[in-house]
Amino acid sequence: MRYPRGQSRPSLNTNRTGHAHCGVGTVLNIRGERSHELVDDGLRMLCHLDHRGARGAEENTGDGAGMLLQVPHRLLNDVIDDLPSEGSYGIAQLFLPRNQTRYRAIKRLIESTVEDLGYRLLAWRLVPTDNRGLGETALASEPRVEQCIVVPNQPLSASALDVGLYVLRCQIQNRVRDRELGGEGAELFYICSLDRKRIVYKGLLTCAQLGSYYPDLQDARTQSALVLVHSRFSTNTLGAWELAHPYRTVVHNGEFNTLRGNVNWMRAREPLLSSDRFGDDVERILPVLAEEGQSDSADFDHVLELLLIGGRSLPHALRMLIPEAWEQDAAMSAEKRAFYDYHSTFMEPWDGPALVVATDGDAVGAVIDRNGLRPCRYCLTRDDKLIMASENGTLDTDFGEIVQQGRLRPGQLFLADTRQQRIVPEAEIFDELTRAAPYGEWLASQRVSLEALTEDRPASTGERLPSAALTAHQCAFGYTMEGLRVLLAPMAESGKDPLGAMGNDTPLAVLSAQRKPLFAYFHQLFAQVTNPPLDYLRESLVTSLRSHLGAQGSLLEATSRHCRRLCLESPILDDRSFAAVETLDRDGLRVSRLDTTYAPGDDLAKVIERLRQDAEAAIDRGSSLLVLDDRRAGATRVAIPSLLMVSAVHHGLIRAGKRSQASLILCVGEPYAVHHHCTLIGYGADAVYPWLAYRSLEQLHASGSLNGVDEAGAACHAYKQAVEDGLLKVMAKLGISTLESYKGAQAFEGIGLDVSLVDDYFTGTPAHIPGIGLAEIDADNVRAHTVAYSDRIAGNLPLLQGGDFYWRRDGEWHQWNPQTIGYLQQAARQNDAESYRRFAELINDQDQRLQTLRGLLDFEIDEAVSIPIGQVESADSILTRFGTGSMSFGALSREAHEVMAIAMNRIGGKAGSGEGGEQVERFGTDAENSMKQCASGRFGVTAQYLANARQIEIKMAQGAKPGEGGELPGGKVDEAIAEVRFTVPGVGLISPPPHHDIYSIEDLAQLIHDLKCANPEAEIHVKLVSKANVGTIAAGVAKARADAVLISGDAGGTGAAKKTSIKHTGTPWELGLAETHQVLMANRLRSRITVRADGGMKTGRDVAMAALLGAEEFGFGTAPMVVVGCLLLRKCHCNTCSVGVATQDPRLREQFDGQAEHVVNYMRFVAEELREIMARLGFRTLREMIGRVDRLRERRVEHPRGFSLDLSALLTRVESSDTSYKSREQNHQLEDKLDQRLIARAAEAFESGETVRLETPVCNRDRSVGTLLSSRWVKHHGGQPPEGCGLDVHLHGSAGQSFGAFVADGIGLHLCGEANDYVGKGLSGGLLTIRMPDTAGYAAADNVIIGNVALFGATRGEAYINGLAGERFGVRNSGALAVVEGVGDHGCEYMTAGVALILGPCGKNFAAGMSGGEAYLFDEDGTLAAFINPERVGLERLQDDRDVALVRRLLENHLVYTGSRRARALLDDWTMTLKCMRKVVPEAYADIVNRELSEGRDIRTALPSVAREVA
């Protein structure tokens, strides 16, 4: 089918936009015995997962809850006459409109469709509902809920009835949509389920409301052998009953980062769908993704259901869609590898943090994403009940009744089948899957490898170009002098995308007076809160750049021809590989070359349409590889901009139904930077050959412009590596692991592009600020072409200067330039108001030079309401709303860091510590930062640090490099920084790209809760970076109960970041702030949260604009740095800052001459300028201004390139009953916590100085146990309690998330039972012991006793775990000592200090990024080396007496604290233990340890004290 032209996505607030996460669970009777008790269990489980869901503006309106169960035949048989036998009919569960006209029309349409397809509608049933207690939003959007029974006119087999009911449902949906009978809210039409085995009850409900709303679920006649339940946390709370889970086959926790690509490729494959099971009915089921406005989970459900109905088994379908990380798994069997490899030739992974639990009505399958980013725990009881959920303890079950406990590992498939009455081992599942077809033979005989094609070819080069011709091409294709110097050359020299610093202060591409390539109008999207970025360096085992080219086969079939494709290990082609591809002509792999140039003066729209037609014609002639080639560009031929060209062809072929029949190979001159390649692949290119980049490198090499590069071929090879590395990094920022999932995913947002341009050529891309269209692109292109191929004027530079990265007098405009820097420093240092006025004029007056989006806006002044400035809020009051950016001690020198804090404390504002922690001696002084940051590295985040905060900021992203972590070179880690960060001097430090305890919005809610428990008096802030849909994320942050949210713009400074990120990631704060305010107002959440903004703010006018767009507080980062001396040399990452601001070099730090008074002066100038604006606008207080977009208007500006811009979306005012500023406090739900009871009972220990013993049960609803207690303890005793003073708390049961988080010295938590994720997070000196109950019916060696990400960021203390841990045990451990009896993947990742002793199995990628500390592992079978990431660490036997003594002491303590049988056995056979024990230690750390030992100092962790009995 030919798809219509698409539509761009709205840039700002829409009712349907949002992200959803949740808690999931399933209860299954393995024997398949149905009961109502199981349904009751499901409802109880759901209530116990309520903390993973959320509420909106009303506490009695949930984000959604639901249950999937087997059709309740017994109930239906009692209420419906003449009901056929079970399984011989279908039942539809429907949401129908309340509008009577629509309601009746839809019912008639359903009845006629049922009849048309050979069925009869036996009965309608109004589903009993009870909406008492529902909130206003839920009631306003509540649909009618009805069921209908559908019976085939002729008896059908079970599989034929399944197919028939699926076709019927699709046909009903299509007809309702085509007649536009459905709507939203109360006018909703939606089929929750239509099936013979499954039925779904769900709605916009809280977990507790589901059972009462649907009396059917409480009816004893409702019986099932399986239930799936779901508690939803959505970032957008506007009424959407249909978005509640379960869907028709799945419940899902997580987010598919690759959704756009998955949807595009699914649509592209639809024309190829064919199957004997569907026959001619295949047209009736199209489009597969028919339901607009659905979630990623719904789209996944559609595709999974198609595969199931099409004949795939449940395990087969799940493994097709969510494969494990097989590409680099050397231990995987050949048969299993062939299975995955074969399916990768025609299906890309649905990638992202995901736990999917699915059912076909008889079996339950579950799968975790390849990186293990969502939790799943399960147990099996003696009576064959399977309990599986996002966490343990969701059903209170006696440990003695449990016979098996486990977790899903990364990429693992789980299957429990009531037909087989067992949990089916994964090996057995794959034995069956791999025997289904000779996948390995098919691959060997059919697939063509590019490596094989180039094996015997000489190292060829492209056609050499004369210097003049090369320069002309470079000019035409948009190369600049700077691009060659600071991008292309460094990539060829280092094989990496080069670093920069201090952010971006140049205009957006659409505002620039210079011609910009089309790439520059697209900004990279990135993962933030609702899904995590990945660390493609430390976790490279899950990444892949492999892809396949050629025609695809039907998803519903499996033949040898499906893998008749060309396999590439990289999408970036060099000369030799492109030469092999362009001459390829084998059966099924035929190349057609399409010229992508045109004559100047030709209509570009017609040229593109002709190219689309040529592509279709080539496919019709049998070509499956289309080379889109612009090498004919020259004096008489203009090249179509490559991004426009590839996306136009890509979307044109999708609409024509032919995209899956061919691949697009670009032979193009324009791309040379990483971002260029990313956009091309993101918009549909299957491979890219950047011919002009290679020729340019050859010229650079010939001219001696490349340092340390021996030959041109090496330069080209290194450049290719740099592009590949950059591509992996950009993918990782989105949380995407594989190229196949990134390709065509359109993971960008556009700024300044005309709506019709986006709709036609970049369909589905979020687009802000409509601007240039095809005509302007063509004009720019032809103008550049004319200049390029005209005669040169003597003395002129061969190419434009550029100046995008560094200020040049003849380059791009920078807001920070010698003039503005000079005026601001003069103003602040001399308290010179006139110099500030001149500075502000240069920044604010954009009539002649467009700089920012806010420069396109002006104030709506009404002189009649203007007031004298004396009536305006005082500057002192306004200053309390100002803050400096959170710049770390490490990125800044100590002197600069302290000056900022002193200044802000003087004016009552906020100073942020940044992510490097803070010296304890600054606490309580003028140099203390009021805002303590909690970033992904958790450096210096201790209980004492948090207890001394007035605000705690969770940094989700940084404006200049969102989605990335950081690295502090060892040379910058001096003794002071090492002490604060709990590491050793001289060892480099890594900040992970993600917070390893935030992979979703409910995880963020948990961290907010943890931090609030760690300091109930502190405000909890969340820092976001502006991007498309940041408003919906901010709504989620508000619902997660944060006190404030910061929207940071893309112009923010940074110590170091990839130049690609600085220039092309994130958007201006104006966009994000406007959207955030609009979404919060629409969701009636604005009153619950303070909104802050920063990212390039410089003047009072900037602050006024931010306030009118919705901000209450305002941050300044780069400007205060300039005030204290920064000259914007952009060398911060080099440790060579000549003015002592951003260096740790003692000699350079002596040059620092900034003073707190300078910062105070600057802030006062800003406040006074703001007061003047307020007076003109007639606002007495800043609060009155907040969100008053009606006092803004668009300015009439003359764009230097002759087009206009539309900023109306920024000025939309949302009607809402909410206040436009924070007016009520969040309910952090601390009053009823278990810790409050412990605090009351521990009063004696606080006062008497003695150790007190407490005992209490615990359950999964008890989260952050010990954290609030520890906070009170730290505030009472300070950093160190008196000798002999302590608390021993004994608990039994299933502890909730974050057990023992931030527990301080003097507190011991002793748990008999199990715990969930984040055990010992931020442990700060406390003692944690977790042991298996004596009554348990399983062995500790098989028992997953704690969840994922234990001891994340721990700085001191001890932990003894009598069982197995999940993934990422000890991640970023900075000083704790831990014993555990086995760990999952990525153990001790990024560890910088402390000790880990692992007594059992070890998962993959152990010690990745580990830079300090020591790990000891028992290598019983001699295979440990295969599980260690060897990049930074060494593996050695135990030889040192200290190591032997340390391991023995830890084992002895472990035995005392937990009664571990494993510890007893190892101690009893000490000789064998020492023989098998191995030490993992970072090599750089070991060198420093040895150096210190040679000088008589031992910096290693000391032996712990001998364990005391804690009966």
UniProtKB/TrEMBL annotation:
Coiled-coil blocks: none
MF annotations from Gene Ontology: 3 iron, 4 sulfur cluster binding; glutamate synthase (NADPH) activity; metal ion binding
Reaction(s) catalysed by this chain's protein: 2 L-glutamate + NADP(+) = L-glutamine + 2-oxoglutarate + NADPH + H(+)
Cofactors, names only: FMN; [3Fe-4S] cluster
Keyword line: 3Fe-4S, Amino-acid biosynthesis, Flavoprotein, FMN, Glutamate biosynthesis, Glutamine amidotransferase, Iron, Iron-sulfur, Metal-binding, Oxidoreductase
Keyword Metal-binding tagged: yes
Gene Ontology biological-process annotations: ammonia assimilation cycle; glutamate biosynthetic process
Listed PANTHER family: FAD NADPH DEHYDROGENASE/OXIDOREDUCTASE, GLUTAMATE SYNTHASE (NADH)
Record's protein name: Glutamate synthase [NADPH] large chain
Source species of the chain: Aidingimonas halophila
